[in-house]
Every structure is written in C-alpha cells, then in structure tokens.
Amino acid sequence: MNKITVSISILLLVLTTAFTAFAQDDETREGTGLPTLIGENAERGNRMNISGRVTLQGTDQPKRRPLIAVSVLLSGAVLERATTNDKGFFNIRNVPRETLTVIVEVDGNEAARQVVAPSPMGNASLQISIPWPSLAAPAKPGVISVDQLYERTSNNQTLFNKALEAAKGSERLQAVTLFNELLTADPKDYLAWTELGSVYFKHDELDNAEACYFKAIELKRDYFIALLNLGKLYFGRKQYDDSVLVLTNAVKARPDSADAHILLAEAYLQTKKGNSAVYHYNEALKLAPIEKAEVHLRLASLYDAAGLKTKASAEYKLFLQKQPDYVEKNRLETYIKENPPK
To answer: What domains are defined for the chain?
Structure first.
C-alpha cells in the first residue's frame, strides 16, 4: 500500500497507576534470562531498567502463544517497546527515572496498564497477570459480538487467518501482502482494514496505519477497536483536540469500556478540560472499581497539583481500601494524616 495521509487526528493517553517493586540488576538478569550489565543502573541516577513477566491466567491452554508486547510511556509518548520471550519475560533498559506507564498488549489489543512510580535507586520489576483466553467481559447470553459477524468467502477467510498469523509472528511484509490481497477482493472488510492498520502501527508506519483505521471507521463508524487504536495513534502525535473527538466516539461505541473512559479522560486533560477528565475517570471507576483502582492515584495527583489536598487525600484513602498492600502505602498514609479528608 502506498503511503496515505488522512485529515483527522487524535492521540493516545495514559493513565497513572502503581504497583512496583524494585530489583537489583543481578535479580533482573536471573529472572528474565536477558543480558544485563552487572551494576547497570543499580545506584542512584536519572535512568533505570524495567523488567518483569507477563503471565496468562486461565484454565484453557492456548493453541498458540499470542504476541505479547510491553510499552513504556512518559506523558503519553512511547519511549520503548519490547515483546516478551516464550516464557513471558521482558526487559526494557535505560528509561527515565520518572513516573511511567507500562502498557501490555496481547495480539495488538490492550490488556493491562500499570504505573511505575519513581524510586531514588534500583530498577523496576513487574509481575502482570492477564485473564486468558478471554481478555474482555463475556458477552450476554444469546448475544454475538459484532466483531464476529463479518462474513467472508472461504478463500478470503483463509487469507485473513494467514495474515493474522503473519502479523502475530512479526512477518510484516507477508502480513501486508496478504491483507492487501484480501482487501483487493473485498474492500469493505473493516476488520481487515483494522488489522492492517495495526501491522503498520506496530512498525511505526503511522501514516499508513492512520489511513487504514480511518477506512475501517468509514465502513463502520462505531467500530470500537479501530476508534480506540486511531485514538492511540493520534495521541502519540499530540493532536489532543482530535483525540477527544475520536475517543468520544469510542466511548459512545462501548460505554462499558473502562479503558476508553480513561483514555478520553487523559485526552481531556491535555486540552485543559479538567472537569470532563474527572468525570470520565470516575466513570471508569464505576465500571471497574477494583481493576482500575489506580485511577484513584491519578485523581489524587491532579487534586494535589491543584491544591485540593483534602480531595487528594480522599482518593488516596479509597485507593488503599482497594489495594492495602500498595508498595508506597506508608507515604500515602502520611499524606492522609497530614491532610485528613472531609
């Protein structure tokens, strides 16, 4: 596919959350099986490493291991990205010692995100568990997901399956060729457009990715995954007004998606619309009060920055009720004591 540009913009946004333990380099090297220089970033400094393991939790053994990618973001921008090895381990080196967001994607779909709080020394080690095989809430009885309703000829379905396998195996050229062959035969296949967009996105061919997502949305305006991915792409380009527009449509398409509400909240923050951001953070908490408990930390940091310390304290208190073993529990309890919520 030739490089295509499209007039629409949006941007990915990041939530802040927390659950981090810090490990020495030798422990990182032993746990991940990846080479790490002994003593690297072990002392105080402005850089650190992030390593850990992503585990798929479930009773069913997958026929194939999905592609698991881990990205590290700072203020909404992707700093580094890596895939896990066959045992789920990853190691990302030399990132800033600041509050970062780690996003885990399984087969191109976001499955988890976690905030790494800064520490004066050491490296961050994460253990992330993801429900498997289903990453989403089960559909209601008798309801079939619209994503499964697109009908293809047997030949096109074969092409689609082969293209997916190539994409998941990081065989970019083969995946692009197969998806284009399919789309030549059936240019209305919005699922194929979306998957092709994700292939381009993965390889930082953002203009092509944008064009593919936009084509999918033209064909099916409420297609959630294309809207969300386009939002992430544009967030990376810092086109915040358009990010609000696209992510608003994503929330309309899937009002039950806590992740979509969180991304939209972050986009609103970038456009200086704090009240709208707070609304969508709270919507996310209503939908997933335990799973997204870290949103309380995000709200608390916003309130603290605005000088609303009693409100920040209330959010910290709610977070600790849900995550009593939080690694920085003592610091939060001190803040609550010094700024008792009303």
So the answer is: 21-130 (2.60.40.10), 155-252 (1.25.40.10), 259-338 (1.25.40.10)
